[in-house]
Amino acid sequence: MNGMEHLLNPITSSPTYIKMTQQFDFTNHSHRRLNPLTNTYVLCSPHRSKRPWQGAREEVKKMALPEYDPKCYLCPGNIRATGDVNPKFESTYIFTNDYPAVKLEQPEYIEEEQEDTLKGRLLKTEGVRGKCFVICFSPNHNLTIPIMSIPELTKVVSTWQKLYQEVQHEAINGSAPYKYLQIFENKGFAMGCSNPHPHGQAWCLDVIPTEVDRELENMGKYHRQHHSHLLGDYVKLELAEKERVVLENDSFVVVVPYWALWPFETLLISKEHLTSTNDFTDKHKSDLALILKKLTTKYDNLFNTSFPYSMGIHQAPLQCSEEVKNNSWFHMHFYPPLLRSATVKKFCVGFEMLGEPQRDLTSEQAAARLIELSGDKHFNDL
After folding, report:
1. Exactly one of 29, 169, 197, 199 is catalytic; which is it?
2. Is residue 175 domain-resident?
3. Is 199 a catalytic residue?
């Protein structure tokens, strides 16, 4: 309004105009940032990062873990909770989850209500079938990704690729109804991980999960409108601007995304168009292993702690049209909860639950913090 801001006087209820003399400052003024992958906004309030913290501080759990724990359900040779015995595996090891979130063997759900009834319109249900896997990254109980070797991590990536190929083969030949494989890792007690043995999970479903489906839909819209790939264009933009690039190598780039919600959230994206791990060469596998080690080392070095996070791979569905496959682009999300220190976490409460996601630290400020940290030496060795 020509440099004037219109405010309502709280006493007289009459309009009051204040002359705006400042220029907009992204590090001090509130604004919203669009996440094009989900078509949702994140409220950014950078001035709030200056406020004193009097909230909860979680206890830092430091444990000197043994290389082998006879009570661990994931260590080689041990008996699991269901009575099955792990083999004495020497690298990665996959087994079917003893307490899966979804199962293959269950009756088909048949909707009884008609669409034109209130119950049919408002109380919708779908049956879901699938299979869940546990992926032990290593036989060593006391390792985490940042302190694993590159050959060990390359084996993990190869295991992800092999699992994708195996379940895709079952889906294509009709022996299983799979449509999507969600590979993820919850690291640390803060993320609800009750077993410190290095491992991740993979849930294979006969549907495409909501978050993935939303991304695929928006990448498809972007491609139809601009005749290019959303993440391909985003990689070009970030590499040109450099401000939010935390790491890169020949095959991958890690950025704090412009629309990040979590304080030190990162997005790992393939530089070329790889639709899934199925497209990986040996070079891609070793490059991913290297950049994963460097990124998680930076995370640990940020607050000198074993940094918790939820990490997951988004890639092409197991069964889909050629258009959906071409709109897919391999990427990994890292969602860490730590905000100010090893003991202060971000929570999504209040406005974030009722209005829209919100963050204090800007993506650029978070990226600057991560960039300056070593990704080659762990804090225990510095």
Report:
1. 199
2. yes
3. yes
